[in-house]
Amino acid sequence: AEVPYRQSERGSIYVEMAKKLMSKVGPDGKSIAYPCFSTQEEVDALKVATEETGQFQGTFVSPWRDAPEDVVQAKIAAGETYAIRFRVPKGKRVAIDDIVRGPVSWDAEATIGDFVLLRSTGVPVYNFCVAVDDALMGITHVIRAEEHLTNTLRQGLILEALGFNMPAYAHCSLILGEDGSKLSKRHGATSVAQFAEEGFIPTAMINYLVGLGWNDGTEKEVYTVDEIIQAFSLDRVQKSPSVFDMQKLRWINGQHLRNMEDGQLAALLGPFLVKAELCKTADSPLVTVAAHMCKQKIELLVDAIPLVKDALAYDLNATLANDASAAKLLQEDFKGLAKALVEAYEAGEFPDATKEDFTDKYGAWVKEFGKKIGRKGKQLMQPVRLALSGVMSGPDVGCQLRIVAIAEQEGVSCVPISQRMAVLKALAES
Fold this sequence. Notes:
Keywords: Aminoacyl-tRNA synthetase, ATP-binding, Ligase, Nucleotide-binding, Protein biosynthesis. The protein is mainly α and 430 residues long.
């Protein structure tokens, strides 16, 4: 059964396998594993001594490797604690054909020497646990970072000694920060929770991470998860390290958001707008309108927050005072257009923004309004945008006004359309 496995709960299995290696005879007629009574202090002292005499060969040679059996058994009988070391055969080489890196081999004796399987405390070491678990769980492919490549040497020796086949290995290159160093916290978000809080979505993260060091041989960059499953193969994973590019990740996230239906995007966007106190509930109709309004303008879910805030706000007078292009419209009879807007609103001609079909009706109404006052194109749309939104640029005005109407109904802080018309009326009469 696929349940959580914990090495701390499998201690008896590792002890059993270690004892098996102690009872098994290798090619040299000696046990594959043996008890080592040297303490860590003695190991360190021996390394220092051999270094000082020039006899240190780069690997630790245990004095208990070839100790007389009667001496060993006497110590065991006396209750002395010991570690269990793997006896590396002389002249032994371990070779793999790594799926990513190609052929790799090691001189085991010269590289690692006899290594510990079980510490004197009875605690198994990482490489022993991994090798045993891979074998007993039927692991066929081990895909991991290149940092673990040298671990394959110990694991391979253990698997061979226990009579298990080695799995296929694929050691992938590391992900680097833009400064060329190993990716770390100082490069920004490093946890799934952090990326989620910033508005990245799972499908985009999967898409981007798969693309670090892999491609399908085409120029395609944006994939669904199903497309990745169909296209992915280990033989196209590259050896060279990849650089984590936050701007590229943002771009891919934005592409995934744009490819969503409005309802899908709204389901993701809702919690962000609620947290920002821009709506009361995540399923508010305001969220659906916001999703439609923001979709083409955002890369992260959090990017929608300032757009919705701007839609709810309104300060026409500040814009006219501080924006030269807005002030220029005053010279083009902006007051006359404002007066006509107010009259249409007071006459009940302006579409009802509380209705679901407002955004559809608004566009048609503006065209008819333009015919009535003799304006079209930029001469119509620009001043109408300024008059109703209070700024010269931004998302679709119809969506903004629909959001304002819903916010007013829900009791969310905003500048209602009626109040905007009051500002326009005061300006027209000034």
